[in-house]
Amino acid sequence: MSYIITLLHQDKPIHKDVRKFIQDGAYAYPLQQKIQKDKGWSDALFAMVAWPSFYQALCRIPRSHRISIMKLSHRLWNTNYQNSKYYGETDNCPICQASKETVEHVYRCQHPAAIEQRAEIVQQLLHNLAPTTPVMVLDTIKSGLHQWVSTDFRTEFRSPTEGSKLLAFAELARAFQAQGELGWDAFVRGQIHQLWEQAF
User: Fold this and answer.
1) Does 148 share its domain with 87?
2) Which residue range(s) make up the domain with 120?
3) Residue 134: which pLDDT band, with cuts at 50, 70 and 90?
4) pTM for this predicted structure
5) Assigned domain for 93 exists
6) In sequence order, what DSSP letters do the residues of the chain get, joined into one string?
7) N or C: which end of the chain has fewer CB atoms below 10 A?
């Protein structure tokens, strides 16, 4: 004789690995709270991130690289701003020597050498996306990244498809604006808005 046992959680059956389900339950919510506190995100904004895509991409990275990627993703890089707080060293950016080297500054430093290297990295990103990504989506992403890194001031960025009556272009504009709410810094750290999938 055999038996089938169905485990329920909040009156719903559990269809996935039970051990993973318990681990997720133990760690997922505290981690969510930490991320929301660090970023100033509401529950609604947190829910707008395409977390399944983030996880899927992370699983494709060799385990030996995942710690570095997670530090990048959650703003845990060791910068001179951090070093100055804990070790008494200068907090200046080692490239421009003009600003504090925060995580955000690493992405947005306006020194010519930093701009050149960043342009190469963005081109590599777009090149990697090109085989499977529509040209207009690539152009919209490129525009958002360019606007974000080109200014130190908080301004409202504009999608290249803004105002278009075409449905596909209007969807791109919505994804662009929604990413702005999360932050383009979140985009470069893998935390992309769910509306990109719809726009895609």
Assistant:
1) no
2) 110-200
3) very high
4) 0.79
5) yes
6) -------EETTEE--S-HHHHHHHHHHHHHHHHHHHHHHT--HHHHHHB-HHHHHHHHHTS-HHHHHHHHHHHTT----HHHHHHHH----B-TTTSSSB--HHHHHH--SHHHHHHHHHHHHHHHHHHGGGS-HHHHHHHHHHHHHHHT-SS------TTTT--SHHHHHHHHHHHHHHHH-HHHHHTT--BTHHHHH-
7) N
